[in-house]
TrEMBL record:
It comes from Penicillium atrosanguineum. It comes from the Eukaryota. Pfam families: Tma16. This is Translation machinery-associated protein 16. GO terms for cellular component: nucleus. Residues 9-18 have a biased composition (Basic residues). Residues 1-30 are annotated as: Disordered. Belongs to the TMA16 family.
Amino acid sequence: MPQRNLQKVQKHITKKRGAVGSMHENSRDAHRLRRAGARDERLIKHGQNVGKGRRPYLDRIWYFYEAAESLEDPLSETELSEMVIKYINRDEEELTQLQQERRKGRPPVRREEALTQRVETEQKEFKTGFWMPDLSDLDVFLGLKNWNKQWSGLSQLKFVRLTQAGDKQSSSFPPKSIS
């Protein structure tokens, strides 16, 4: 998709006039080229922002995808809770290593702060409802195993919010605050 509009405009102008570099800088065609270039830049920037927003959810689903590949049967409620706890504590070793390397009285490094903040937010989310694919459902379990590793392929799966108490509520895709 990048630079698609710009290429179309350039192709149209070269068919009409010849070389793109031979036009006057304030001509109508030059303005069209600048607008098309700016439009393509906006689309690229928007795509990057959308991808950045989806990254945490894709990482989460990727973790459950890898875990589901090694399993043969759907999970029970307790196994789902255990898997979420493993997911939340996935960087525990790195966090403890960073804490041990830090000298007494020194502030934590940025990586340590980011890890502790992420763990805290995921634990809060787990108390209220952790968004994840419903691996206790056979169709979702098999669908996740056959996932094409694209964001658009996730719309066919069923998602739930699993609480620390073991309650499970159906959720929507893509995730919203509390769905």
